[in-house]
Design a protein that fits this description.
427 residues; FAD/NAD(P)-binding domain; 2 domains; eight-stranded mixed beta sheet; five-stranded antiparallel beta sheet; 23 strands; binds flavin-adenine dinucleotide; FAD/NAD-bd_sf; G3P_Oxidase/Oxidoreductase; FAD-dep_OxRdtase; FAD dependent oxidoreductase domain-containing protein
Length: 427
């Protein structure tokens, strides 16, 4: 072997971390390189922390395939590593139209919304999505969620929707991989690539690294990294999402995640409880030109969020939010995940994981592993392991998690950070 690593993974977001975990378990000697000082500090630091079941992913898509694979694997890992999670379930709520003028139009809208719910339920059955989704009448919705605004027309109960600590889980995947001969380098930006026959040199700001295969998990920069080897097949079109966060004293106001009926572009603004019992309202969806994750919230969007709060759970409006956060989805011109293997370049591109990267991450890792075996014919340096080790960790006062071997990671996800503050939010 005239290379240092079997696989170099570019990007320490949730997708790169899961790929590292799956490949390390299989015995591949891996290095993950991340340009920022902390892993998980870009798109993966701005998500909602929800494990979606894939009910609204397109049929026959890679997204649906990966989410289903992930659902099979993730819960034993969460248990083993004691990562906080809660199966809260979700209700997709159909609301009436406040400004409908004609009665005929009203009935058309009413039945078309009902039909839309039935279509969503039917299509999720066709997709084989786990869990028994079923329709609820308006009164059944109010039985489950008495604080919802007036005007509910009906809903769908989605029992398996789960919330978790969206930062700690990928951190645990990385930590586990370190015990399996893998390494992580942060503050290590990839600046160039030289593919050769059966070997690739990855140039970074801290020197060159050689490997057999490169997996590009660079999220918001995925297209630019693909371009380094002339393999660009998509363009990143960043889509911002913004949230309001309420104190844990609001957690009794809802029991499950309240979803609107989704559109083609977005799942819509959700009112949900984080795994640490903060009620959160968001995310929005705005296409923006910049790839920099905007730390600042936008005032106009904030008003839209307050309005969504009042129109979904009116009594939440009598609390002031304790904070807000934003995230940036690595969307592309395509709806589906963009995972492509270029055998002649020793290259796998994993891009466009825009809205469900947490829910599909282990499936994505497995998909990549199969591509490495089948299309790149690379055997792992070490033997595989089916054992999952327990991980001994504790949260510290200064917003870090510390593992038994003293490795420490700084919180970068607002759900984890807000979850460890003790603000109350009564007006
Ligand atoms: C508002 C919002 C809500 C969401 N809600 C959910 C949800 O509830 N459930 C769910 O499943 N998913 C959700 N998602 C989607 C999920 O967060 C994304 O799919 C996921 O974060 C994408 O991960 P990634 O690893 O592809 O990208 P990233 O997290 O951006 O990781 C890519 C990494 O590559 C690094 N990188 C880039 N260029 C280089 C370079 N040259 N050298 C080295 N490193 C580099 C970056 O620094 C970054 O850390 C949401 C996303 C957003 C933004």
């Amino acid at each position: 072997m005239d290379y240092e690593y079997d696989v170099v993974i570019i990007g320490g977001g949730v997708v790169g971390c899961a790929t590292l975990f799956i490949l390390s378990q299989d015995g591949y000697k891996c290095l993950l390189v991340e340009k920022n000082p902390e892993i998980l500090s870009e798109a993966s630091s701005g998500n909602s922390g929800m494990l979606h079941t894939g009910f609204d992913a397109p049929i026959n898509s890679k997204e649906l395939h990966c989410i289903k694979l992930c659902q099979d694997e993730i819960f034993p890992l969460l248990d083993k590593w004691k990562v906080p999670d809660k199966r809260t379930g979700a209700i997709m709520v159909a609301w009436n139209e406040q400004q409908i003028r004609s009665r005929t139009y009203f009935y058309m809208r009413f039945f078309s919304q009902r039909r839309k719910l039935a279509d969503i339920q039917k299509s999720s059955e066709d997709k084989g999505v786990v869990g028994d989704m079923y329709q609820l009448s308006a009164s059944q919705v109010y039985e489950r969620e008495p604080n919802l605004n007036q005007g509910v027309q009906g809903g769908i109960w989605i029992p398996n929707e789960t919330v978790l600590d969206p930062w700690l889980f990928p951190v645990c995947m990385v930590q586990h991989s370190l015990h399996r001969n893998s390494k992580v380098k942060t503050d290590c930006k990839v600046t160039g690539i030289t593919p050769e026959y059966n070997r690739t040199t990855v140039h970074t700001q801290h020197g060159a690294i050689t490997c057999r295969v490169v997996v590009n998990c660079a999220g918001l920069y995925g297209d630019q990294i693909d371009n380094l080897v002339n393999c660009q097949t998509f363009s990143i079109k960043p889509r911002k999402g913004q949230y309001l966060v309420y104190g844990q004293n609001t957690s009794g106001l809802i029991n499950s995640s309240i979803l609107p009926v989704p559109t083609d572009k977005t799942k819509g603004i959700i009112v949900f409880k984080s795994v640490y019992n903060n009620v959160i309202v968001g995310p929005t969806a705005e296409d923006i030109p910049s790839r920099q994750v905007p730390p600042e919230a936008d005032g106009i969007i904030r008003s839209k969020l307050y309005s969504a709060t009042g129109s979904t759970v009116p009594c939440l409006s009598s609390y002031s939010n304790i904070g807000e956060y934003t995230g940036l989805r690595p969307a592309t011109q395509y709806k589906d995940y963009q995972i492509t293997t270029f055998p002649e370049r020793n290259w796998i591109s994993v891009g466009g994981i825009r809205s469900t990267g947490l829910s599909g991450c282990l499936g994505i890792g497995k998909y990549v592993r199969d591509e490495i075996r089948e299309k790149l014919s690379l055997e792992p340096t070490f033997g595989p392991s089916s054992t999952i080790e327990t991980l001994d960790w504790s949260f510290s006062q200064n917003h870090t998690v510390k593992f038994a071997d003293s490795t420490e990671y700084k919180f970068v996800h607002p759900i984890t950070t807000f979850g460890h503050q003790t603000h109350s939010s009564r007006l």
